[in-house]
Automatic annotation (TrEMBL):
Protein's name in the database: Exostosin-like 3
Compartments in which it is found: Endoplasmic reticulum membrane; Golgi apparatus
Subunit structure: Homodimer; disulfide-linked. Interacts with REG3A.
Domain of life (superkingdom): Eukaryota
Similarity section: Belongs to the glycosyltransferase 47 family.
Coiled coil spans: 77-146
Listed Pfam families: Exostosin_GT47, Glyco_transf_64
Domain Exostosin GT47: 190-502
Transmembrane helix recorded as keyword: yes
Recorded topology in the membrane: Single-pass type II membrane protein
Catalytic activity: 3-O-(beta-D-GlcA-(1->3)-beta-D-Gal-(1->3)-beta-D-Gal-(1->4)-beta-D-Xyl)-L-seryl-[protein] + UDP-N-acetyl-alpha-D-glucosamine = 3-O-(alpha-D-GlcNAc-(1->4)-beta-D-GlcA-(1->3)-beta-D-Gal-(1->3)-beta-D-Gal-(1->4)-beta-D-Xyl)-L-seryl-[protein] + UDP + H(+)
Length: 921
């Protein structure tokens, strides 16, 4: 078995041995070659290269080592190494920051998701609250409907022509408003429509004096209450006189006149709600309606007999002196000096008592006369007493009881002497003017007395009415004791002492009040008609219609980019100016006392300037009269002032000056072809707190450029188109102004936000005055005997220019519709003085000076185009304006003040030459 195995094994080696040997030989060869390449080839290469470097010299060596070890010590290699290390470190840091930011982003994403979930939850809560509020309001309305009766306006009755009318009164003499006036035709919301009969529709209308007829027609045409629809009228006016002097034969008899009155189309059997108006231009007039049964129609005329006059129903009106002409204010003497040449004057003639009064008989005392039989006529005693005062020469008086050309008069009435021009010349130099009532006590009102009263108030002479039985015009509403002295005839012996005892202040106050009454109620035919209607409307307690506002015809404009904020104007330090309104602007309340004022403020409205707004139209804002503050105490003129919480001042600022009601103001900016300046001024208003809107009065006939981009300040900017270039447009009561507070500002004025806010806070505590920044004053020039305008800095001022000032919108109505027209005409003539005119108006009404607040001396725009005020003629015109305005008002209404308002937290640097002024804080 072993022998057989070896050959088999040997045979196996032989068969496979040859490949194994070959593989071993190959491995050996490969190992030798690798050894040769790795060992001998580098040596050979090194030798060869070394041989080449040695053959070329040391300086030409390429591969051999350089002298001094230049390769290892190269600086740029070290720098590169340091840069590589720095870059590596920065890359590591950036990577760390990237990872940190990724983590922060992840955390913020988680917070965003949480906020979104909380917003969704808050929306759900808000929706639930709204549903609860809605349900609560619905429940409240249901409870109110169950527990309160339903109130509605009175039903307005509009009867037809066959209306039987009211139950007849016991007698025509017993007519009063409650028994003879149909209130159902005049509900509170009726607007007091008045229908006026055409004078050509009745027979005697053609015989009415043409001047009276034309003046009445002109007044009717301009009256806001007149309507052409008789079916809705509350009142019906019939002009019955005055008839022409040449038509005395055509005067109808009482029975004929009564028939013609009943034939009027809307007389309705008894004439209820009719007023028969008899206007006169003469001292003696026909009493057409005497012995005429007027039914339930009221009578308005200047002359009444006692048996004819129905107290509380009929009206005593003033004569119509200026029928178609306007009073010339330049011919009216000034109200100062208070004392004039004559202490008192009287010119008149009474034929019946003249003979007995001139007898040389020693006068008896009133006590002696009263002990016996009372005198039948005190006029004789009046004549003797006045002549005795004149002969005593204690005071210079003028009394004349005979006339060269006496005017026709009623029996027992004192006739006027001479022509109107002659009488006016005497009254202009008289301190007091006597008005002696008719001797006949049955004559309760006469046109002659009304004429004397009218002429005296027109020239600023204080009327002295002798006779307390006389009924003066509109005595139910006008407190005549504030403008005239009413003395019973038995006190004529004490008249001289009484007149001498009056102080200058009292006389000046009475003279001003008389001028106000004359100018407001009696001066023109329009005022006469307005006063007549206002007296009736006030009696039946119907509120006045709203005075018209100037419609703002807007100029389309496009807003550009969002306005920025000037860093200089916005740097307010630590002052918190208030919130920038994010909600829609809100307007001031309107008509707060529209239906209640008539019963409460009748006397105040009639007797104190500026009167017409409570008698004639309302202002939409309807504040109480500014001038009433001096009669009723501080704060009653406008809204009440609340108290602040005190403290460090933060609460004061948050409460907007310590006042309770929330309020905004409107900026009114007048501009004329200075687009760049205007755009900069508008942009400075961006972010101003409590700003309602901006009204830009575009005073140029040329519209703004089409490519002009207006700044977007986040509030409405209303650009108003004007009919003509007039500075009076600044004070028009634009309907776009919906706030009581107006900030009038020039387009080149620079005011900081903190300055504006401080001025607004001060105005809210002095709402009846002008509150602003640039102060001016007036001065008397002794050499030229005239007034001067001065713009120098001083410790005293009397005006605050409206180029940067707050005032109440109420004064915009007064300036545009009540202030005498000659003042506005002069502003248009000179293109100047509108700010002076506004200061005159406010001081005239309130008898208070304006209030100046401190500014930071940044008022004028540096680098702006030159304004009108830089011209030398500007100041000369302002001198003329002041003197002209004084003539129109009759006195200087401006008042001096050394008062200036500073905030206790307001830091102001004063020039060294102004430190002498007292500063009130």
């Amino acid at each position: 078995i072993t022998g057989e195995a070896e050959p088999r094994s040997g045979g196996g080696l032989g068969a496979s041995g040859q490949p194994w040997v070959l593989r071993r030989v190959r491995l050996t060869w490969l190992s030798f070659m690798l050894f040769f390449i790795l060992v001998f080839f580098p040596l050979i290469a090194h030798y060869y290269l070394t041989t080449i470097d040695e053959a070329g010299g040391p300086e030409k060596r390429i591969f051999g080592p350089r002298p001094g070890g230049e390769l290892c010590e190269a600086k740029h290699v070290q720098d590169l190494c340091r840069i590589r290390e720095s870059v590596s470190e920065e890359l590591l840091q950036l990577e760390a920051k990237r990872q940190e930011l990724n983590g922060e982003i992840t955390r913020l994403n988680l917070r965003i998701e949480a906020c979104k979930r909380s917003i969704d939850s808050a929306k759900q809560d808000l929706l639930q609250l709204k549903n609860v509020i809605s349900q609560t309001e619905h429940s409240y309305k249901e409870l109110m409907a169950q527990n309160q009766p339903k109130l509605s306006l009175p039903v307005r009755l509009l009867p037809d022509k066959e209306d039987p009318g009211l139950p007849p009164p016991k007698s025509a003499r017993s007519c009063r408003l409650r028994s003879c006036f149909d209130y159902a035709r005049c509900p509170l919301t009726s607007g007091f429509p008045v229908y006026v009969y055409d004078t050509g529709s009745y027979t005697w209308g053609n015989y009415i004096d043409p001047l009276v007829r034309q003046a009445f027609a002109a007044a009717v045409k301009s009256n806001i209450y007149v309507t052409d629809n008789p079916n809705i009228a509350c009142l019906y006016l019939v002009l019955v006189g005055e008839l022409q002097e040449s038509s005395s034969s055509a005067v109808p008899s009482p029975s004929e006149l009564e028939k013609q009155l009943k034939a009027l189309p809307y007389w309705r059997s008894d004439g209820h709600n009719h007023v028969l108006v008899h206007l006169t231009r003469r001292s003696m007039t026909q009493n057409l309606l005497y012995n005429v049964s007027t039914g339930r129609a009221a009578v308005a005329q200047s002359t009444f007999l006692e048996q004819q006059y129905r107290e509380g129903f009929d009206l005593v009106v003033s004569p119509l002196v200026h029928a178609l002409s306007e009073p010339n204010f330049l011919e009216i003497p000034p109200q100062v000096p208070v004392k004039r040449k004559y202490l008192f004057t009287f010119q008149g003639e009474r034929v019946e008592s003249l003979k007995s009064s001139l007898q040389e008989v020693p006068p008896q005392s009133f006590e002696e006369e009263i002990e016996g039989n009372p005198p039948a006529d005190y006029d004789d005693r009046i004549i003797g007493t006045l002549k005795a005062v004149q002969d005593s020469h204690l005071d210079q008086v003028l009394v004349e009881f005979t006339c060269k050309n006496p005017q026709p008069s009623l029996p027992t009435e004192w006739a006027l002497c001479g022509e109107r021009e002659d009488r006016m010349e005497v009254l202009k130099v008289s301190t007091f003017a006597l008005v002696i009532s008719p001797g006949d006590g049955q004559l309760v009102a006469s046109a002659g007395c009304g004429m004397r009263l009218f002429e005296a108030m027109e020239v600023g002479t204080i009327p002295v009415v002798l006779g307390d039985h006389s009924t003066l015009p509109y005595h139910q509403f006008i407190r005549w004791s504030e403008a005239a002295i009413i003395v019973p005839k038995p006190r004529v012996t004490e008249l001289h002492f009484l007149l001498r005892s009056l102080s200058d202040n009292d006389m000046l106050a009475m003279r001003r009040q008389g001028r106000f009454l004359w100018e407001t109620y009696f001066s023109t035919s329009e005022n006469v008609l307005n006063t007549l209607l206002a007296s009736i409307r006030t009696s039946i307690q119907v509120p006045a219609a709203a005075i018209k506002e100037e419609p703002a015809h807007e100029i389309p404009h496009k807003a550009g980019k969002l306005a920025g904020t000037d860093a200089n104007l916005a740097d307010n330090g630590d002052l918190d100016l208030g919130p920038v309104e994010t909600e829609p602007p809100y307007a001031s309340p309107r008509f707060l006392r529209n239906f209640t004022y008539t019963a409460a403020d009748t006397y105040r409205a009639w007797n104190h300037a500026p009167g017409p707004f409570h008698l004639f139209p309302h202002t939409p804002l309807d504040p109480v009269l500014p001038s009433e503050a001096k009669f009723l105490g501080s704060g009653t003129g406008f809204r009440p002032i609340g108290g602040g919480t005190g403290g460090s001042g933060k609460e004061f600022q948050a409460a907007l000056g310590g006042n309770v009601p929330r309020e905004q103001f409107t900026v009114v900016m007048l501009t004329y072809e200075r687009e760049e300046v205007l755009m900069n001024s508008l942009e400075r208003l961006n972010g101003l707190p409590y700003l309602n809107k901006v009204v830009v009065v575009w005073n140029s006939p040329k519209p703004p450029s089409d490519d002009l981009l207006w700044p977007d300040i986040g509030l409405p900017v209303v650009v108003v188109r004007t009919e003509k270039n007039s500075l009076n447009n600044r004070f028009l009561p634009w309907d776009a102004v919906e706030t009581e507070a107006i900030l009038s500002i020039d387009d080149d004025a620079h005011l900081r936000h903190d300055e504006i806010m401080f001025g607004f806070r001060v105005w809210r505590e002095a709402r009846d005055r002008i509150v602003g920044f640039p102060g001016r004053y007036h001065a008397w020039d002794i050499n030229h005997q005239s007034w001067l305008y001065n713009s120098n800095y001083s410790c005293e001022l009397s005006m605050v220019l409206t180029g940067a000032a707050f005032f109440h919108k109420y004064y915009a109505y007064l300036y545009s519709y009540v202030m005498p027209q000659p003042i506005r005409d002069m502003v248009d003539e000179y293109i100047n003085c509108e700010d002076i005119a506004m200061n005159f108006l406010v001081s005239h009404i309130t008898r208070k000076p304006p209030i100046k607040v401190t500014s930071r001396w940044t008022f004028r725009c540096p680098g702006c185009p030159q304004a009108l005020s830089h011209d030398d003629s500007h100041f000369h015109e302002r001198h003329k304006c002041i003197n002209f305005f004084v003539k129109v008002y009759g006195y200087m209404p401006l008042l001096y003040t050394q008062f200036r308002v500073d905030s206790v937290l307001f830091k102001t640097r004063l020039p060294h030459d102004k430190t002498k002024c007292f500063k009130f804080i």
